Amino acid sequence: MREYVANYVTIQFPFDPYKCQEVFMEKVVLALQSNANALLESPTGTGKTLCLLCATLAWREAYMARRQLAQALSRGLGDNFNDDLRRSLDMTVSALPDAEDYTKPPPTIYYASRTHSQLSQAVNQLKATAYSPKVCVLGSRDQLCINKTVQKLPFTAARNVACRHLIKKTKGCQFHKNVNIAKVNTKFEREIMDIEEIVSFGKEQAACPYYLTRENQDAADIVFLPYNYLVDANARKAQNIDVNNSIIIFDEAHNLESCCCEATSFEMTSTEIAGSLDEVQYCMTETLSPGNINSKELEPLRDVLAKLDSEIRHLDVHTRPEQCYPGEKIYEILDKAQINYNTFPGLKILMEEAANRVLLALKIVFGDAGETSADRCKQVAKYYKLHVSLEKKEGGRLSLGNGGRIISFWCFSPGLAMRDLVSGNCRSVILASGTLAPLSSFATELEIDFNVRLEGAHVVSSDQAMVSIVCKGPSRISLNSSYNNRNDENYQADLGECIIDFSRVIPDGLIVFFPSYGVMTDCINIWKRKHSRGNRKSIWDSIVDIKQAIVEPKNKQDFVKAMSEFNMKVADNSNGSILFAVCRGKVSEGLDFSDARGRAVIITGIPYPPFREPKVVLKRQYLDESARKQKTRAKILSGDEWYQQQAPWEGLFVIKNDYGAILLCDSRFANSRNLSQLPAWVRPFVRVPKDYNEVNNQLTSFFQKMTTCKREVKSRAKVNQSQGVRLRNDVQKVQEILKHLEQNHTPDAIPTTSTPIEIDLTKKRRPSITELPSVMVIKTVPTTPYEGQKPGTSGLRKRVKVFQQENYTANFIQAIFDAMPSPGPKGTTLVVGGDGRYYSEEAIKIIIRIAAGNKVAKLIIGQNGILSTPATSNIIRKRQTNGGIILTASHNPGGPDHDFGIKFNGSNGGSAPEAVTNRVYEISRNIKQYYEADLPEVSLASLGKQNFGDFTIEIIDPMNDYVELVKELFDFNLIKNFFVKNPSYKVLIDSLHGVTGPYAVRIFVNELGLPRSSIQNDVPLPDFGGSHPDPNLVYAKSLVDRIEEENIPFGAAFDGDGDRHMIYGKGAFVVPSDSVAIIAEYSNIIPYFQSTGLKGVARSMPTSRALDLVAHEKNVNLYEVPTGWKFFGNLMDAGRLSICGEESFGTGADCIREKDGIWAVLAWLNIIAKVNETRPGSGINDILNTHYQKYGRHFYLRCDYEEVETEIANKVIDHLRDLVGPSKDTFFGKTFGEFTVKDGDDFEYRDPVDGSISSNQGIRIYFTDGSRIVIRLSGTGSQGATIRVYVEKYSKNPNEYDLETLPAVQGLIDVSLEISKINEITGRTKPDVIT
Q1: CA distance 934 to 850
Q2: Does the model's pTM come out above 0.70?
Q3: Going by DSSP bridges, is the β-strand pair 660-664/600-603 parallel, antiparallel, or unpaired?
Q4: Helix (H, G, I), strand (E, B) or coil at 853
Q5: Which of 75, 437, 518, 1072 has a CA-to-CA distance to 985 between 20 and 30 Å?
Q6: Residues 275, 277, 279, CA angle at the centre, nearest 5°?
Q7: DSSP 8-state secondary structure symbol assigned to residue 114
């Protein structure tokens, strides 16, 4: 942190502030010291939010110190030292120290922005500072309630009523009851959390986030909240906001004028009144319970609403925009419906139970609870107009006759809300935005004094931005998007030609803004019809040939998809993309178009509001009337002046720490009056070229220069701080930087620090965080390829010593980034984690450096590198990241002499498809260099975000998201109650020192209430305690022994990365093939499948056919696929598959995407708990036997011959292929002991989703009695191959169901050895593992 002194206040700032930031903070401090209001304009990209937070909190710290001193002095503790300290603090805190009252509570900071996403950004900015105030983030029940019963209610009013009633009941809301416990949780007391994190914390603690925030509100130093909670007097009262002596900050305040008017206005439709009637009826019949307002009491409200609906439907409609009723008309209408000052207080009580929408409107008319007099309300109504229009029906048609109406009670004085706000005796109101100019008129509109003002400069230099007014197109047609000209086809065509020419020159992302959706649609339609000059293609096709075109949709879901597509295309290093958008649309508010996303912005017209819209016409009339009636000399805007200032510039100029062009394609911009409306920082950059050719030449020259500068930054940098070089971004001051660089060419070596740095590629020791703050220099490291870096479905697995070879890991990681699907690594977010095995920490550090070097935007990493494979998959899907890198060799042993692995999962959470893994392999064979950033050491132990320029690392709790997921999938209450009712039912979980240990403790102990002794080997160890983390009868022997010795009815073991499991109880071993079949059989009692149904089931080819019988019984599709989870993944992604499993202890479902051991164990516990409701005392064996009685038993066993030399293993398979191929005529029909061969094959699979064919997947041999053997190779080990022999014998004889597996299949094992000649070919006498 840096220290900066502004007006005697010492401010802790994350870095050396720019000059414009220093000035901005000085203005903030001045306002606070002077008890004044401030109007501060500072361009987008200059760190307004950070400056506001740091300056305000620094001043408040000084205020708190002076207040503490005042308390000490009041107790007679004064002396000369304290007097000196008092004078010093007085100078720091206040311009009028004698007027300060330190007996009052210290000022609360209310930090408001327009949206919760903007507030979340502000909270995250606060986390990056040195300040740790007590924070409260206010939101609605809709945003914060986690009670599913309340959430399911259809209306907001019904949800509010249900919530209030629940907390009054004896049993009440379980989440509300836990608030008092959760609020003293250290995390809640100390951590700064945004609204999403508060909800997550509430779910974790089973405590209501809504009431947690309310509990935190009174003690908060700073409260984050939306605009309307402050400017709406009724909302302030509802939220218990006391602004007395407070500091009120409106960030992004350019919308404050409209927000104030909206807070004191309403529009209400006949449909909404009818909806309120529905709410009343719903609350009468569904929501309210005995002891609350009953149905009879709600009848008067229903009658009043019906009368109101009738009165509104009979109002005369205003057919011209200038027509309206005076504001007082609203009282006449309401009185006819028996709503007046006498009846409103009683109706209000009823409306709080229902009809919330109408209540909000009536509060604006009457004041809260009728607190103001009728005379006062009539006086207030002078600021209003009442407009009545027809309500549109579906399809956009207007209703006729006495159909629906829209009554618009519009307030045209934003000062009404602002004056009411400041009347609460707040200390200061600070308004900040990138576009407030002209400040004088903005202040006039709000009708409060702003004695501190600033029109700030930008940090960008003259060579970073090009702003040009384009008056004519290439055909010399005037570019003018006025109402009379915008539909001229010649103008539209020439505008399209401009965009074609500019698109050829402008790299990366280009945003084109239109005044409205209608204008944009008309232009695009013309461009699709008209040919481009000298080209047979249409103008539109010519644009699309250069850049992929994205058109801003109106629908929110489509908008998110469109923006994602735009960003992906910009990031894929092609010609970029062009985004056609609308001023005042979603694109122009709060989105980040920095760097490549916004190389240029084209404005195709001055975005005035619709000239003939009734609200606009009436606003102009109101201002003109006010100007004529005014009796003071204060300047009041005329209607025309107001209209000229309504073009929304915020969000259109995004040059944050970057370079870019702004092209104003409308000749009206050259008018001096229009130029004066532009933000102050833009005006000095504006140029008016003499003709179109000059525009194009300047644009070409600008981007050539910027691109050259960016590419020529070298990899060895030494910047002398005494020369005052401040490196703010990748282009600014680039000429000064180049003077200090050597001649070695390294692309994109961009220093981003204000501290002198020395980068020496020969040094082995990495600089520490104190030596190299905020440095990110990207360098190219030469390398040579290694043979054999071919990943399978399970990734690349080798001995640790192989990965430790120079550049071996770096090569493979770079190959992954190079092979990533579009948009490639740049700008992406990836999840990183693993099972914590040996070499994981070193590998993660390599991944971090190479990710930064490849311009990855963010890495989400599990704390200490721990993140199970299923948890990683969940985070990828939940946070919609671009994929993840998992460091694991699954069930293989770990340690310096054993295995390590790296696996890439795609954005769907599943293993990378074969096309990607093949590409990784091809790249690895020819790799010549990798890119890495020279970063300081990163702590994997500290939760939170660490920022390095545009690169962010977020260290997360590895368990929170996963625990939240499984609690949604299973009936935790059912399972927990089962354990409570059956205290003798013991459980033993063995994590084999793999990644699942912490998860097991959190889920089985903390959530389900099992004793801590129920978990063993739960600490993840790099070498898994010297054991083999494979959950089978051999490697989980300690679990089996304890279960048998202690008569434990249920036990489970998990592998290294958490995707495999074994279930074993006293005298009961669950074969994985039976496990997946039983989960499918009982799927109807598992909450997730109750809601989704069973789409289909699947098994790997070697897995027994027990699942086939369940599928047939339930009449769902059964898919038999090769080994490899990717085949299940294709079916899941296509919506064909719900449950799947493989014989190698892997079971999963579409809700988790990967195989998941903990998921399978929870499924079994859910089944056991449910079965015990009707069959008390049922355990594993009871469920197995019930299943066998219905379907018969598949005796199944697998024998593994591990680490067989690959050449020898292939000889075994070649021999078997000959038997089922060329020699099948003599092999089929041959008898071996009691078994006669029926047929066989080398399994081939045609994927029903993509049609791909997978051949040579394993030898299948069928016998006439229904038995089967399968023999295949597995390459998941790091040394040689594993030969796996599967034997399966099916029986429908109940007398055989209790047989041990080995005796039942021994004859078939002998036959398999005789047929395969394994012992003869390999020289082995027995398998390494029998499962």
Answers
A1: 9
A2: no
A3: parallel
A4: helix
A5: 1072
A6: 70
A7: S
Query: Is pLDDT of 1052 > 80?
Result: yes
Query: Which residues contact residue 891 at a Cβ distance below 8 angstroms, ignoring those fewer than 6 apart?
Result: 1028, 1029, 1030, 1031, 1055, 1056, 1060
Residue 206 backbone zone (phi > 0: left; psi -120 to 50: alpha; other: beta)? left
Spot the catalytic one: 276, 890, 911, 1027.
890
Q: For residues 1072 and 1062, what is the distance between their CA atoms, to the nearest angstrom?
A: 7
Q: In what order do the strands lie in the sheet with 1050-1054?
A: 1015-1016, 987-990, 1050-1054, 1061-1065, 1068-1070
The closest alpha carbon to 1146, from 1155, 1154, 1133, belongs to 1155
Buried residues in 400-436 as b, exposed as e (16+ CB within 10 A) = eeeebbbbbbbbbbbbbbbebbbebebbbbbbbbbbb
Contacts of 964 (CB under 8 A, 6+ apart): 200, 203, 204
Identify whether 754 is a catalytic site residue: no
User: pLDDT tens digits for 807-832?
Assistant: 999 999 999 999 987 778 999 999 99
Q: Are 44 and 656 in contact (CB under 8 A)?
A: yes
* Structure tokens that stand for 1243 in this block: 């399994």
Residue with tokens 């999403």: 196
Structure tokens at 960: 């929170």
Q: Map 171-227 to HEC letters.
A: CCCHHHHCHHHHCCCHHHHHCCCCHHHHHHHHHHHCCCHHHHHHHHHCCCCEEEEEC
Phi, psi of 903 (to 5 degrees): -130, 140
Name the token pair of 799: 């001995």
Give the DSSP letter string of 1134-1160. Answer: TT--SEEEETTTEEEETTT-SB-HHHH
DSSP for 509-539, written as a single string: EEEEEESSHHHHHHHHHHHHHSBPTT-SSBH
- For residue 246, give the nearest of 109, 448, 61, 56 by alpha carbon: 109
* C-alpha span between 456 and 43 (Å, rounded): 7
Per residue in 576-604, pLDDT (tens digit) is 889 998 887 767 665 556 667 778 889 98
Q: State how beta strands 1139-1142 and 1146-1149 pair.
A: antiparallel
What mean pLDDT do residues 520-527 have?
93
